[in-house]
Amino acid sequence: MKDITFDILNKYKIRKSARQKIDFETYIKKSLESYNLKITVEESGLIKSRNIIIGDISKAQVIIGAHYDTCAVLPFPNIITPQRMWIYILYQVLLASAMIVASAAFAFITELLIKNHYISIAVYVAVLLSLIFLMIFGKANKNNYNDNTSGVITVVQTALKLEEQYKYKAAFVLFDNEEKGLLGSMQFAKKHKADLKDKALINLDCVSDGDNILIIPDKHFKADCVLIDKLKSVFISTNEKNIIISEKKYFYPSDQMSFKKTLGIASMKYSKILGLYMDKIHTAKDTVFDERNITLLTDSLINFIKII
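Above: the chain sequence. Below: its structure as tokens.
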């Protein structure tokens, strides 16, 4: 099991191009099948998404997932503040404004040099679209330990460590194209609508940088009193790590948004101003891989699977 974690961290951490994704998929399929796990790859969508499924979705009682695609490297982080949604929105507005100002500056310089209004508008649109393109399709972030190599490894380790007699209870999925707008998880939700029905889906995204493990159940998960009580009984804080199961409606943008009855799980830092927050992701500074987080989550997920 440690060999697989080592290989993912050192050989298959970058999963952005089609070739890189295929290489990762081939490795995962070969490695997990050697442990007698059933692996299926489903391809769908106009922008092709290849979701990697471990186990049997139709028979499982819970689905555990994480996206495996790699984001583009950016000069600024994607800061997420689940408790302070207004800060998150303000930050996104500031980033968008910066892109608009930069595009306008190029258009203004073009107007001064060429004195052609139509060409200036074309330059403005071209620069703005180029910036958006680079944010989504730009150079892969080689440092993606937290986003989302941490989630991938947690899913894989949970599938591997789960005892044989409990394997039928859970299925696992590695979603493609989360960074392009949750495309892989939306296709998965559409394809498996009948199989999922009232089943819970647990999504792990960025779980290795921060001592606060934030668990966000949606209203449908909260409404299942038996399930939420079982969740609370196995996800327990330690001396090093703080488990927070949110009672309020926190916002965390990730693949769980494609489903009904879900949990989103992420690791967070804390400050008085920002509350719980995440930084560094989408930048070269995303280098923290705290194995204590992975171990805690893997053990807790296994215990949860056993008692549902």
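The first helix runs from residue 2 to 10.
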